[in-house]
C-alpha cells in the first residue's frame, strides 16, 4: 500500500498528500450528477442567502470567500448574485489548477446545480453564471489556518474542516479561522460530513475526524447569530455517496460581533 493511502499515516493536515489530490476523480464521483442530498443543501443555502439580502443585490458591493473550495463549484455559485468578488481559497495545487480551469468556463454538469439556485429570489438576475463567475472569482492558493481577520462580507466552507485531518483540535481551528475571516454581520453557510472516517480519492486516502451536530454548533456558536443547523440523513444504501459517514450537516447564520 502507498503510505499516503494508509489511513494511519496521515493524521494532521500537513501530513496528507494534498497536492496529489485527484480533482477530476473527486468531481466526477461527487458532482457528475446532482444528488438529492446536495439538492437539499443547495436549497437551504440558497434560501438563507436570498433571505439575508431580501432577494436583491446589496447596496454595498460584497466580497465573498469559499474556504477550501476543492473540486466543488456550487458554494461559489450560491454566492454569485450577491458578490462583486469571490475568493476561492484552496491549499491543494491540484485543486487550484482544477478551479482555475472551471472558473474560466465550467463543465456542463454544473448547470443542473445552477438550476436549483434559480428557484431562489435574486438568482435569475444573473443572466450568464459562467461569465459572472469568470468575472468575480479569483482562485487563491493558501493555508486556511492563516486567513486574514474580518476580510470578507459573506462566506462558505463545505466539507473542509472535518475533512482535513483526524484532529478535532484542527477541526475547531479551521472553523474558527473561517468564522474570524468574516466581517460582523456577514451571512455564512458551512457543511460537514457527519462522523466521517476518511475518504479515498484516486490512489490516495485522505483523513477526516468524526463530528456531530453538537460539535458543529459548539464550535460555530460563539461566532454566530441566528444560526440554524440542519442534519441531512444518510440516504438508502444504494444512494450513499461513499462508505464511512452517517449523514451531512449544514449550518447557516450570520457572523456575530465577537
Task: Describe the overall structure.
Residues 1-10 have low confidence and may be disordered. Strands 3-2-1-4-5-9-8 form a 7-stranded mixed β-sheet, sandwiched between helices. A two-stranded antiparallel ribbon has the order 6-7. 31% of the residues lie in helices and 22% in strands. A hairpin with a 2-residue loop joins β6 and β7. It has helices at 23-31, 36-52, 74-79, 93-104, 110-117, 129-136, 168-180, 213-220, and strands at 62-67, 83-90, 137-141, 154-158, 187-194, 199-201, 204-206, 224-233, 247-255. The protein is an alpha/beta fold. It has a single domain (3-55, 63-143, 150-255), classed as Vaccinia Virus protein VP39 (Rossmann fold). The longest helix is centred in the first third of the chain and has 17 residues, at 36-52. The N and C termini lie far apart (47 Å). The chain contains 8 helices and 9 strands. One of its GO terms (molecular function) is methyltransferase activity. This is Methyltransferase. InterPro entries: NNMT_TEMT_trans (IPR000940), SAM-dependent_MTases_sf (IPR029063). Keywords: Methyltransferase, S-adenosyl-L-methionine, Transferase.
- The third-level CATH topology is Rossmann fold
Order of helices and strands: HHEHEHHHEEHEEEHEE
Give the CATH H-level superfamily.
Answer: Vaccinia Virus protein VP39
The average pLDDT value, as a whole number, equals: 93
Range of strand content? 15-25%
Largest sheet: 7 strands, mixed
Total separate domains: 1
Q: Indicate the low-confidence ranges by residue numbers.
A: 1-10
Radius of gyration: 17 Å
Separation of the first and last Cα atoms:
47 Å
What is the class in the CATH system?
Answer: Alpha Beta
Would you report the number of β strands? 9
Question: Structural class per helix/strand content?
Answer: alpha/beta
CATH architecture: 3-Layer(aba) Sandwich
Shape: globular
Q: How are the strands of the largest sheet arranged?
A: 3-2-1-4-5-9-8
Share of helix, binned: 25-40%
